[in-house]
Amino acid sequence: MTVERNGLTRRQIMAAAAGIVAVPAVLRFGAPAQAAAPMMGLSRPSHYRFKLGGFEITTINDGAIALDGPHPIFGSDQAAEDVQKLAEANFLPGSRFEISFAPVIVNTGAELVVFDTGNGAARRPNAGQLAALLAGAGYSADQVDVVALTHFHPDHIGGLMEDGSPLFPNARYVTHETEYNFWTHADRMAGPTEGVAKLTASNVKPLADKTTFLKDGSTVAAGITAMGSHGHTPGHTSFHLESEGKRFFLGGDFCNHPVVSLQRPDWHVRFDMDKQMAVDTRKQILDMLASERLAFTSYHMPFPAVGYVERAGEGYRYVAAAYQLNL
């Protein structure tokens, strides 16, 4: 008789295994087991908060939508099968993908700054609840001192107004002057720009007298600097944050898919208005993030939308933040 190291014989081990296998078989012939609790459905965290020096940064989960793709939204200049293969090689479905929305709140200690405002309550069934999400994160809309806009696409400016009134009654607003001038020009009210121009007219223009128009390098608040990242839209703007020697990059829509945008930054994106400029911008920023090992958030990264970039092959790789920002 052979004795195993743990003191059990091989026969005893086999008998125990047979008993384990037999239990489900017995249950199949009796009354079906019923869970005491009902199925609850998909659940997501509403926010994530961490410290950056003297700042407190909170990313907000303003919902998500599922779409066919990633092609042709991502890799619009590539063969569909190549984009599909890239997704599947990274454990993602090749024919469906999810895109989420992550406004950011920064408490500098002196001002509460909101970056982008989500979809707005009436735009999407599974997104656009910023007012309620603020409350869940411990804030109220009337506490917001500054609203900074990366650009004017609807999922970024939709939450500026609720029922025709500003959601943030006490805030001042900042956005790039190029972005504002482009979308408020009368020529944008027809053709492919019409939808965004009309939303700009209803949600952004009424706030013009409270708005500061930025240039590249303008200061938004102490420790927060605007950084031109044009291409996705004419005046798309990212922001560099620094507090007590700690730095963080807030990227907006410069890079919108955790696999395709990073591993193939030169592939075109349908929603980039100037595709080559967007490619150049994406490469420059990804190179900076990788070289400086700088933590960043980008609006459509998988929630909580905070991570790092490392060089990998012909492109880069997204490394989701673990616990390093919690320490």
Q: Would you write up a description of this structure?
A:
This protein has 327 residues and is an alpha+beta fold. The chain has a single domain, classed as 4-Layer Sandwich (Metallo-beta-lactamase, Chain A), CATH 3.60.15. Helices cover 25% and strands 25% of the residues. It contains 8 helices and 18 strands. The longest helix has 20 residues. The chain is globular. The mean pLDDT is 92.
Residue fraction in strands: 15-25%
Q: Please report the first level of CATH classification, the CATH class.
A: Alpha Beta
Question: How much helicity do the residues have?
Answer: 10-25%
Distance between the termini: 55 Å
Q: Report the structural category.
A: alpha+beta
What's the β-strand tally?
Answer: 18
Work out the helix count. Answer: 8
Biggest β-sheet strands, sense, barrel? 7 strands, mixed
- Report low-confidence residues grouped into runs of 5 or more: none
Tally of distinct domains: 1
Give the CATH H-level superfamily: Ribonuclease Z/Hydroxyacylglutathione hydrolase-like
Q: Remind me, CATH topology?
A: Metallo-beta-lactamase, Chain A
Order of helices and strands: HEEEHEEEHEHEEEHHEEEEEHHEEE
Looking at the overall shape, the CATH architecture is: 4-Layer Sandwich
- Quick check: average pLDDT? 92
- Label the overall shape: globular
State Rg: 24 Å
Strand line-up of the largest beta sheet: 1-2-5-6-7-10-11
